[in-house]
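Quick start: what a row looks like.
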Amino acid sequence: MKETLKNIEKEALNHLSKTSDLKELDQIRIKFLGKKGELTKVLRGMGKLPKEERPIVGQLANEVRGKIEEELEKIKGELKNKEKLIKLEKEKIDISMPGKEKLLGHRHPLLKVKEDLENVFMNMGFDIVEGPEIETVHNNFDALNSPENHPSRDLSDTFYITDNILLRTHTSPVQVRVMKQRKPPLRIVSAGRTFRFDDVDDTHSPMFHQLEGLVIDKNITMANLKHTIDMFIKEIFGSDMETRFRPHYFPFTEPSAEVDVSCFECKGKGCDSCHGTGWSMELLGCGMVHPKVLENCGIDPNEYSGFAFGLGIDRIAMVKYGINNIRLLFDNDMRFLNQF
């Protein structure tokens, strides 16, 4: 049995000297020191030995176990250290390499124009208000004095969710909500997304952005409206810009007007861009708030009057930055956006 123990020690140490990874090392441990290992088998046969030999064999078995375990721990430490060095070599960082470039975002031209417009009106004493994009038919049409047979109510013009719920076609419902919730005097602007059933082309999109303003107080006249619009146009496009008011029709204002601005190329002198007229395209619509709209919102039209105006933020952005296709504002093409 002594010879068997010496052979086990020799064989185990021989295997350990040749091992190259931790998994193989554990297999050697199990083979020689496990519950069913070589050393355990020998120890189980000690009962057959004479009593006087058992202590000697037991002591030798413990010495063999100790040597094997000591060698196991030694090689285990060496292999772990080797693996660590290999891992560090693979994961090392070359601090001389250039870092990755960080791309910083910036304001989208639409958002920038929206904020510029809001800042202009805030400096004029207007409050900025917001409202939901999903609206009721009442707030979007009825309260704004829109006739029941008006084309804008048709399915071909408006996105209906139910018979009474729709995607707002303008930001005017925000004005209705404010007039119902607050008492005059009121001076507000609201900006946001609006939706209409339009075919996509260079200047039209089924989703676009509007900004609308409302002033309600005693003794408000058309002169106040014209002065406000003039100040706004000069602030946005320059002090040399002129405005022209043309009669128009809107259900929620009376009288109503469309506003043209002088040509951005020739400043009113006449050129090819404006076909010699000196005027650019229609920029916004406006008018005095219809008495029925005031009544619908709980405001006495005999005591209060007001004006409202609305403009397309997308159109302002296109004019301001010389953009000839509205699709560019929504395509998220970095080549286009990086110009701003």
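That is the whole record. The first strand starts at residue 127 and ends at 129. The mean pLDDT is 86.
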